[in-house]
Every structure is written in structure tokens, then in C-alpha cells.
Design brief:
Layout (H helix, E strand, L loop, with lengths): L1 E4 L14 H9 L3 E5 L10 H6 L3 E3 L2 H7 L2 E3 L6 H4 L7 E4 L7 H9 L3 E4 L14 H18 L21 E5 L3 H12 L3 E6 L2 H11 L4 E4 L2 H10 L2 E4 L14 H5 L6 E4 L20 E4 L2 E4 L9 H30 L1 H6 E4 L2 E2 L2 H7 L12
Parallel strand pairs: 1-2, 1-4, 2-3, 4-5, 5-6, 7-8, 7-10, 8-9, 10-11, 11-13
Antiparallel strand pairs: 6-14, 12-13, 14-15
Helix pairs in contact: 6-7, 6-11
Length: about 375
Amino acid sequence: MIIGVPKEIKISENRVGLTEAGVRQLVQEGHTLYVQRDAGLGSLISNEAYEQAGAKLLDSMAEVYAKAEMIVKVKEPLADEYDLMREGQILYTYLHLAAEPKLTKVLCERKVKAVAYETIQNPDGSLPLLTPMSEVAGRMATQIGAYYLQKDHGGKGILLGGVTGVGRGRVTVLGGGVVGVNAAKMAVGLGADVTIMDVNRARLEYLDHIFQGRIHTLYSHMQNVEEAVAQSDLVIGAVLLAGRKAPQLVTKKMVQSMSQGSVVVDVAVDQGGCIETCKPTSHTNPTYEVDGVIHYCVPNMPGVVARTSTYALTNATFKYASMLASMGVEDAVAQDPALAYGLNVYDGHVCYEPVARDLEMEYRPFVPVRS
């Protein structure tokens, strides 16, 4: 198969869809790889490294899309890429379509075979291609929150770990999944007073066990969320419903109850956000204030730690990239039930039910169309 890796064009997105090692392996498997020139520079992967791995370099994104039967990316296509996609082309990337109605319609109109990293799901419910970036985003969320709590960055002047004789900063993490656990690990490591909230009691028991009393766990209902948010210096939104819009757990009134200079970091922003006052920002202008509370809501947080993120991502995505390239979408999906969950758009229709439901579009289960 002919595989294309374009340069990401989202603001401050420095990741790339495949590392040089991933390219080398796919070439070894008999595929042709085209990489857009300079696509890997943000992840410290040189053009020469791709060429040595067997890729052919192209100067423009349009050339990559025109030649490739499968596009491997990191983030969803932006408006400049819409006209480059064509019928039958495989798109393999993060899509988060529940928050992207226009893109979803374009993918349907162009009959792209769109496979979303974030909805590939194992039988145990885990999301293997979302996990590495969730780890990165979770760890970054605490780091970023601590940064903006500094007075010189607009915060209230709180050191999360406190010092002898002075209270620690209070951190509330909404969601006990991969993002939440990694955010909590960082916050505990900094010495903060940490609370994790979730609706899954078994998950809370597990978190109590692994943190061995170093955190508080609370069942997530409105009263507990209200009280925890009001008392927090830093609130981290880490809620995920696979493929669906995030539920709004923190209302504007709750944000208003926080003290001036507090910080919220909504990692769920790429799924619509779990904090009512959340709106997507970018790495070039990452924050804004609502009622004196600093909001950080960047959808592609891992994009600024691209070296770490790109290698972690390819480690996770390569298995399915290889299957799609070797078998095509139809046979690969038929062979692997986890990959079947990743197919979001096929033959002009949404075939992933949570996306169809959230966007109020027709849901049509996957039925292979063979030439």
C-alpha cells in the first residue's frame, strides 16, 4: 500500500504520524512511504532519517494526499485538508468527531474510510491508542496547573507542595482514568493535597489501593463536585466517555465559587470539555480568565512535548497501521474486533454509534463495500 505522512498544521502541533522506525518497518513489510518534507522536525526526526528508513520525501501536503492510499496523522484534518481527501482513502488519526460536526460531514461526503485512534477499544474496555497521550496529558495538566498558580503567571501564588508550617495546595481531579491517575501521580509527587472523583466505585477502590492513602477519593455527584471545586486551587478535568462528548460536571456557578487566581485545566476539551466555562485554546494563546479563574483548555496538549509524544504514539498505533496497510480496512476490521470500534466513517456514513448519536446524524453499521 502507498502510505502518506503529512506535516501537521494545527497550531503548535509538533508531533508526526510515524517515527523513522515505524517507516522503516512498514517499508520492510513491502509498503511505499511518502513523508512530507520537515514533517518530523518538531519531534527531532530529520528528513535524512526518514530517507534512510526508506521513505520518499515530498515537498507539499497536497502531494502526500494525492499519492497516498492511506494517510497516517496525529490530529484531525483541518479545513485546508478537506479538499485533499478522496473517496476510498484511508485516514488513520485522532479524530474526536463528536466535537467536529463539519469534519464528520466532509468525511461522509468524500466517502473517506476514517479510523479514529481514540475509539479503538479492547474487550476489557481499555483504549490502547488513547492511553499514551492520556498519560502525557495527565502529567502535563498538573505541571501546567502548578505553573499558572504562580503569581507571575496570574495565579494566586500557591506552591502545590507547600512548605513546613504552611498548607499544601488543593487539587481536584475529575475522573479516575488514565489522565486522572497520571495527573494525580504528578500532584502527589509535588506534595499537593489531592482528591480524585469518579462514578465507578470499583475504580475508586482501586485508586485507594494504589495510592495507599496519599489521596482522597470521592464519589462524583453534584454536591461533592460543588464542594470540592470550591475548595480547590487547581481543578483538572479528566473525564472520558469513549467517542462521545464529555459530560459537563463543573458549572459556571461552581467556577465562580473558586477563589481568585485559581486554575482549571480541562483535558477533556477535545471532546467538548467537562467544565461549562471551557472553550478550546491553543499553545500560542493557551489561557483566559472567567471570574478571576485561569482556564487552560488546549486540545493538543502533548503537541509541545513532541519528542516524547511521537515515539509513545507510534509504539501504540503501529500495530493497526500495519494491519490496515497489509489487509485494507475491510479485512483488518473483520479480523480484529478492537479495530472495528475505531472505524468511525465508512462509505459515506457514520458507523460509530456514539458519534452519530451526539451529532444527530444517521448511524449505519459497518458493511464492507468491496470493489
